Amino acid sequence: MTAAIQDAVREAGELRAPLRIVAGESWLDAGRPVKANRVLSVGDLSGIVDYVPSDLTITVRAGTRLSEIERATRENGQWFPVNPFGTSEATIGASVATASSGPLSHGFGAIRDLVLGFEAVTGDAKVIRGGGRVVKNVAGFDLVRLMTGSWGTLGVITELTLRLYGLPYNRRTVAIEAPTDARKLAERLRALRDAPVIPFALELLNATAARKVGLPPRQIILVELGGNNAAVDSQIDALKNFGTLIDGSAEMWDALRKPEAGEQIVFRVSGLPALLPERWERTSRVALSSENATMHASIGRGTVRCILTSDPGVAVLDQLSAPDANDTLILERAPATWWTKISPSAVDNRVSQNLKRGFDPLGILNPGILGPVN
User: Fold this and answer.
1) What is the chain's mean pLDDT, rounded?
2) First-to-last C-alpha distance (Å) of the chain
3) pTM
4) For 366, which of 77, 95, 289, 305 is 20 to 30 Å away at the CA?
5) How many other C-beta atoms are found inside a 10 Å radius of the C-beta of residue 141?
6) Are 65 and 173 in contact (CB under 8 A)?
7) Domains of the chain, with CATH numbers?
8) Residues near 334 by Cβ (< 8 Å), separated by ≥ 6?
């Protein structure tokens, strides 16, 4: 199977024909222009290559759906704790290539922390491998983290080895109302971080996001806990100190992840978790420019994610173009004009350019998806 990818890349190189790398194709409308006239799909490159439950590792092909990984591991009382925004029909290759993580990253880390090894085909049709198939492997230059989030610009990912965890005996979702006053919200979040709880997920939701998941349309903190019964009960008791708990369900997290229909603008603002209340307030002002904007934030990671239902206009665009010095703005889905204004290139530095030329000397892999190299 990898040989077919090699052949396709080799042919494209000989013809100097740039390739658009796709899998589940759910990221094709992100807005960043890709200058390619051929499509290379790894969507059919699916299935489990190797699964050793006793090692808590699984090796799968890049086109394998997250739902397939979930089914296979659940039979052995294990799981791959990643729930990127979208659906579980997304492929693992695209999730890693785009570094897509979701609410579970609060408790288990980003997807880069759960990838142990990979196989990929570079732009000059060479097969490279990084990491390994065990949790502990030889240290060195971290090719795994380099490939994660490279958006297919350094190589076509064909195979991945993932770290698994044991399924918790009990999982429970609850919600707590959150103050809207910035000072009181900061106190609440600080107290939550200091509380004797270790959540799987801990998200702050605005009223629109709360309504989307089936909760009262108010500012809410959504919490997922897991472990044995005693551990979950103990954490529930600790959370009761923050007010009345609203019983939730696992389906709420799926609803939060689910994309809305229609054209949208999605961006993230990240920074130090301690500064999340100020970041939330600034992003809320931007959200007011779009009717029914959805906002939610990972309290542990300090990242605010905002979904706008309409283009808020030039004034707001300028405001986002000059974010707070402590914040990093990341576009997830936006019109081409936004990319040009806010993020003209993610690879305009010498290190990134040298890496690109080293892995893709002919520049045929997803050219333009991270912006122009030069």
Assistant:
1) 88
2) 34
3) 0.90
4) 305
5) 8
6) no
7) 2-166+348-359 (3.30.465.10), 170-248 (3.30.70.260), 265-339 (3.30.70)
8) 30, 31, 265, 266, 267, 342
